[in-house]
Design goal:
Layout (H helix, E strand, L loop, with lengths): L5 E2 L18 H16 L4 E3 L9 E5 L9 E11 L13 E4 L2 E7 L5 E7 L5 E7 H14 L10 H13 L8 E2 L21 E3 L1
Parallel strand pairs: 5-10
Antiparallel strand pairs: 1-9, 2-3, 3-4, 4-7, 5-6, 7-8
């Protein structure tokens, strides 16, 4: 197992749909184990394969939930369907997301309250579960990655403008940018303090 670098917005693999997994083999198992390790090192709650430069339909999570789903898991070739997304503006105090591929930034985004997930594990066994609340948000966030969508692509006009400025300010938006969890400074500040000031943000 190893911690892999995480690519940053502007890398082409993040902005196109990932391919279906066809081989449920040792390479796939290694990818999933590396993604688990990378996510832990990055203090994330989820990670999709395109974020480590692999254009396959795989994502993992490590997040407590009230839905009876294991705290850590993975899904291959998932389908995620959701309840209706509320139309009101997101509450910045309660509905703010971050992303390991837009490191150090966070913006409010409205998401559906429920998500239904169907897919497979690394052995080809069917997985199916319902997710609610923040866990549902995580499922939507990671599934978006498999379709070439970052959460900043879904922001309303006001927040989208702020996100574009942040991307420009950081020199992103083009290929070749990445950061290495456990080697580089944690962009969300977990290195600086013991208390989790990001507890109300989803970082995936």
């Amino acid at each position: 197992m190893s911690v892999r670098p995480i690519v940053i917005t502007g890398e082409p693999v993040l902005h196109r749909a990932a391919a279906l997994v066809t081989d449920f083999d040792d390479d796939l198992r290694t990818l999933v184990e590396d993604m688990y390790e990378t996510n832990v090192a990055a203090n994330g709650v989820g990670l999709a394969a395109p974020q480590v430069g692999v254009a396959l339909r795989v994502f993992i999570w490590k997040m407590g939930n009230e839905d009876g789903v294991p705290e850590q898991g993975h899904v291959i070739n998932p389908t995620v369907t959701t309840s209706k997304i509320p139309q009101e503006r997101p509450n910045p105090d309660e509905e703010t997301e971050g992303c390991l591929s837009v490191p150090g930034e966070a913006f409010p985004l409205k998401r559906a309250d429920r998500a239904h997930v169907i897919g497979f594990d690394v052995d080809g066994n069917r997985i199916e579960f319902d997710a609610t609340g923040w866990f549902a948000r995580c499922m939507q966030h990671e599934y978006d990655h498999l379709n070439g969508t970052l959460y900043v692509d879904r922001l309303d006009d006001r927040q989208s403008k702020k996100a574009r400025k942040a991307v420009k300010r950081n020199g992103w938006g083009k290929p070749g940018n990445s950061w290495h969890p456990g080697v580089d400074r944690d962009p969300f500040g977990h290195d600086e303090d013991d208390n989790d000031e990001h507890a109300d943000e989803l970082i995936g």
